[in-house]
Write a structure and sequence with these properties.
With 268 residues, the chain is an alpha/beta fold. It contains ten helices and eleven strands. 40% of the residues lie in helices and 18% in strands.
């Protein structure tokens, strides 16, 4: 079979224990059932308001629950993740959005000033979605939380493929950043290849469902490095696709004290 991360999410969410946490950030907790509904609402909104299958979605955020939730929405709606290094200056961010042909941008409100500079230079972006408190939103900008909570959260009626894409832009150490195009099936195979040497690995959606019903959900995991880098993203995805819990930290830079307090508190 060909793996698709959207199909994996649709399969595992119904069999995870009631109340099991998907995303944690400080005192904020989002269960898998909630994340399932919220990501479907977000994905459906994007498809119904200008985005089309395969369109690129720019992720301009620090580590926070909305990063993984938007990733889930993209997988389920057949949209393509594009990582943005939030340490870039405006011109560098513009290069990523323009080079990737981003049709949607989801950004943290702390980057509003950069977005204000970029918007006139990016006429092909169809949707601007701000993650924050929803206050004083710029014109023609959508509030993320309203989109995530507006709707019944039903699964999307889309037929997905193993060739659906995820983009990962490199850091540009050999020139300008380059978009590495990962097919879902190839990335899933890469993530599970090493595990096969350690024991049985579910090879179909039915086997994955049975594995979770027998063994319970996956681990509690902290991406201590940024999700906008490959290490943070791919390891968090591996935990997510096994029904695990993704815990993100609040500090803008690494705070070792916060990290180890959170490890202890959340049983990471």
């Amino acid at each position: 079979m060909a793996w698709n991360f959207g199909d994996i999410l649709d399969t595992i969410i119904p069999v995870l224990p009631e109340g099991h946490l998907a995303l944690v950030h400080g005192d904020r907790e989002i269960t898998w059932a909630e994340m399932g509904r919220r990501s479907n609402n977000l994905g459906r909104f994007m498809l119904e308001n200008g985005a089309t299958i395969g369109d690129k979605v720019g992720f301009y955020m620090r580590n926070r629950p909305e990063y993984m939730e938007t990733l889930a929405a993209c997988f389920r709606a057949r949209l393509t993740h594009v990582n943005v290094n939030y340490r870039y200056v405006a011109d560098e961010v513009h290069y990523i959005f323009d080079n990737s042909d981003a049709a949607v941008v989801v950004y943290g409100n702390e980057f509003r000033d950069n977005v204000k500079i970029l918007r006139p230079r990016l006429p092909n972006v169809k949707l601007w979605i701000e993650v924050g408190d929803g206050a004083n939103l710029p014109a023609e900008t959508y509030d993320y939380e309203k989109l995530a909570t507006n709707g019944k959260g039903e699964n999307l009626d889309v037929a997905r493929e193993g060739g659906d894409l995820l983009f990962l832009y490199t850091g540009g150490t050999t020139g300008m950043p380059k978009g590495v195009m990962w097919e879902h099936d190839a990335l899933r195979e890469t993530q599970t290849m090493a595990l096969r040497a350690l024991g049985d690995v579910p090879e179909t959606l039915d086997e994955l469902e049975a594995h979770l019903q027998t063994n319970g959900p996956g681990e509690v995991y902290i991406p201590a490095c940024p999700l906008m880098h490959g290490t943070g993203l791919f390891t968090a995805m591996a935990a997510m696709m096994n029904g695990g819990t993704i815990v993100t930290l609040g500090a803008a830079s690494l705070d070792a004290h916060e990290l180890w307090r959170t490890v202890e508190r959340r049983g990471v």
